[in-house]
């Protein structure tokens, strides 16, 4: 293994949660397309946590629990006002807010299966409410409570915007949440597993995972894709812009993947969503620019779009502010992080790899005045 292998290809253990074979992604044995076409996000969360799809009764009770725990108390809402403003990135605010959630959980330090599941429901329920509260607090708007008549995806959009979302918007958000829910041992999931493998608590695992997801080489790429599209401005400018970036050996955000070399199955799905939604929102050029960017990079570097590439124009078309793209990813991925935390606890061993030492040897301490 070289000094900067980034653990490429290293298998860190077994997992039942998601599988990547070639360009095929499955959750607990179900094809991602099958789930995105047919399921509700809540069913997928249940699947990831329990390794089976819920029956009608289980789903109804799970949805009820998710709704009941989705409320934020006034202390939390008021506290957000003390650290959330336009100068703070919503991912940083989310990281703080999730850490803060543990302070208001009297059982935060409790271990064991039942206590862990209770924390899981609390976190998964509250995370869309927190993202929406952060988004609204940044704009000086009141925080909106969830509506008992809405499911997870619909309530998330409702709490963000304060208006009932359209069916198209709900369907797009539901699919996006499903497509981002889990992805084997990606960097943020690995971070979560490393944290809880010390037998630290779930809040610590999720807080750390949010920190890892934030980076532009991981989940933070979706926001950067949108920034790039805005910087390019029009289809006519794409070729020069991309050739210039590649000549300078700069990375194009939303392109390439550590594992998928034959294409990311989520990207083709999101590409189709982006085509339809940009047409409907009257900005088809965003899609055309994205397709042209992807074509050039495929031709020049043999690299293909990842999940973050087309999700940018999907979220933009839904009217979502760009700094919320990665927090939305976090809302969805929390379900996968939690599934991996359960799995880690079930068969835990401290994760502690080694490094090959390549530093100085045989140095002797010099008093400060001699240095
Ligand atoms: C949800 C997710 O996390 S999906 C990934 C989101 N991240 C991005 O979109 C950021 C852009 N992409 C990248 O940085 C990379 O493709 C990664 C980090 C995702 C995967 O990285 P790896 O497969 O390990 O490739 P690595 O970063 O080592 O690059 C290998 C080579 O491909 C090139 N390359 C990889 N991705 C890109 C890119 N997006 N644009 C241009 N060149 C690229 C590198 O410059 C490097 O070239 P070189 O060998 O000539 O130096
Ligand atoms: O698997 C990865 O390395 C990154 C990724 O696509 C994800 O987390 O969804």
Automatic annotation (TrEMBL):
Keywords: Transferase, Tricarboxylic acid cycle. It catalyses: oxaloacetate + acetyl-CoA + H2O = citrate + CoA + H(+). The active site is at 257, 308. Pathway: Carbohydrate metabolism; tricarboxylic acid cycle; isocitrate from oxaloacetate: step 1/2. The keyword Transferase applies. The keyword Amino-acid biosynthesis does not apply. GO terms for cellular component: cytosol. GO terms for biological process: carbohydrate metabolic process; tricarboxylic acid cycle. GO terms for molecular function: citrate synthase activity. PANTHER family: CITRATE SYNTHASE (PTHR11739), CITRATE SYNTHASE, PEROXISOMAL (PTHR11739:SF4). Belongs to the citrate synthase family. This is Citrate synthase. It comes from Jeotgalicoccus meleagridis.
């Amino acid at each position: 293994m070289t000094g900067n292998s980034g653990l490429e290809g290293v298998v860190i253990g077994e997992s039942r949660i998601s599988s990547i074979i070639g360009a095929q992604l499955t959750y607990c044995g179900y094809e991602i397309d099958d789930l995105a076409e047919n399921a509700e996000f809540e069913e997928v969360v249940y699947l990831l946590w329990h390794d089976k799809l819920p029956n009608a009764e289980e789903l109804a009770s799970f949805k009820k629990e998710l709704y009941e725990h989705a409320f934020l108390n006034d202390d939390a809402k008021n506290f957000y006002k003390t650290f959330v403003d336009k100068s703070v990135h919503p991912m940083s605010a989310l990281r703080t807010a999730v850490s803060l959630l543990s302070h208001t959980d009297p059982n935060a330090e409790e271990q064991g299966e039942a206590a862990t599941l209770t924390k899981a429901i609390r976190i998964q329920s509250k995370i869309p409410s927190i993202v929406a509260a952060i988004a609204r607090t940044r704009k000086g708007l009141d925080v909106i409570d969830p509506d008992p008549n809405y499911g997870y995806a619909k309530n998330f959009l409702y709490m963000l915007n304060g208006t009932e979302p359209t069916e198209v918007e709900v369907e797009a958000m539901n699919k996006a949440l499903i497509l981002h829910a889990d992805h084997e041992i990606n960097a943020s999931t690995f971070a979560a597993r490393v944290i809880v493998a010390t037998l630290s608590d779930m809040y610590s695992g999720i807080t750390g995972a949010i920190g890892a997801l934030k980076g532009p080489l991981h989940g933070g790429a979706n926001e950067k894709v949108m920034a790039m599209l805005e910087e390019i401005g029009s289809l006519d400018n794409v070729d020069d812009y991309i050739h210039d970036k590649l000549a300078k050996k700069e990375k194009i955000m939303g392109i390439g993947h550590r594992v998928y070399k034959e294409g990311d199955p989520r990207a083709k799905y999101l590409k189709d969503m982006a085509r339809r939604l940009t047409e409907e929102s009257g900005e088809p050029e965003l899609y055309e620019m994205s397709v042209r960017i992807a074509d050039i990079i495929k031709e020049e570097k043999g690299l293909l779009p990842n999940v973050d590439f087309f999700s940018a124009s999907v979220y933009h078309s839904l009217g979502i502010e760009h700094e919320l793209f990665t927090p939305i990813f976090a809302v969805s991925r929390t379900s996968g992080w939690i599934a991996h935390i359960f799995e880690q606890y079930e068969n835990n061993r401290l994760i502690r790899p080694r490094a090959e030492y390549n530093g100085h040897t045989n140095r002797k301490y010099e008093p400060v005045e001699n240095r």
